[in-house]
Amino acid sequence: MNTDVQYITDKKGRKKSVILDIDQYERIMEDLSDLATAAERSQEDSIPMEVFLQDLKKDGII
């Protein structure tokens, strides 16, 4: 991860904001979206991998 970060500070030197490279910001936002999706789906029922693969083969996907 790029650690080339700039901070905006107040008069006492306390960090108040951060400036990120736009690509880094977009990667962070995508990661947050992925984490939110995973959290939303964490209670969904799951199926064994073998069943999943059989369904894909049956549907002609693999």
Describe this structure in words.
This protein is of the alpha+beta class. The chain has a domain at 1-41. It is built from two helices and two strands, in the order ββαα. It has helices at 22-41, 49-58; strands spanning 6-9, 15-19. The longest helix is centred in the middle third of the chain and has 20 residues, at 22-41. The two termini are 35 Å apart. The model has no long low-confidence stretch (mean pLDDT 94). It holds the Pfam family RelB-like. This is Antitoxin.
How would you summarize the topology of this molecule?
Layout: E1 6-9, E2 15-19, H1 22-41, H2 49-58
Q: Give me the number of helical elements.
A: 2
The average pLDDT is 94
Radius of gyration, in angstroms, nearest whole number: 21 Å
Percentage beta strand: 5-15%
Largest sheet features: 2 strands, antiparallel
What ranges have pLDDT less than 50 throughout 5 or more consecutive residues? none
Spatial gap, N to C terminus: 35 Å
- Number of beta-strand segments: 2
What level of helicity do the residues show? 40-55%
Give the helix/strand class. Answer: alpha+beta
Give the overall silhouette.
elongated
Order of helices and strands: EEHH
Largest beta sheet: strand ordering: 1-2
